[in-house]
Amino acid sequence: MEKRKVGFAMTGSFCTWSKVVPELERLTEKWDIFPIFSQASYETDSRFGKASDWIEKVEKICGHEILHTLTAVEPIGPKKMVDMVVVSPCTGNTLGKLANGITDTPVTLACKANLRNGNPVLLAVSTNDALGASARNIGTLMNTKNVYFVPMAQDDPFGKPASLVAHFDRLGQAIEEAFAGRQIQPVFL
Description:
single chain, alpha/beta, Rossmann fold
């Protein structure tokens, strides 16, 4: 039986990549994963690793080249390239763009192109302002058809009280639920 196709988009919350990538490897056992990177993800060397090393690792895990330009992701809609788009990690910047219909990055355009087909989008939040400026965007997206969230929690309630990070170990379960048209519960842990 052919595996369902999942677009797996990574944005610039580089501090979480070491948790996301092992989960990505587990996901390839069940789904055919097509990696998508934001421009920052594709080009930025950070204290958490060189972009070229992450690219090599993710492409090896997925067995597909990373889609990282607007022209590469635009066909997701008309060609029905994937059955779902997962954004993990999903930054506050990406949340804001999605909540306001701004599709000027490979990740946001991939989400729009996928939603056009009535397919689910699953967001794994990782932002220091989730309970601050990004809270309204999370609320808007929670009320948007076919948009789902990976369970999340405060990662440092006393040091960064507005910060939320997804429980990346719940990605597989959240994908299953989103494919079934359900929000995994509880959303906030």
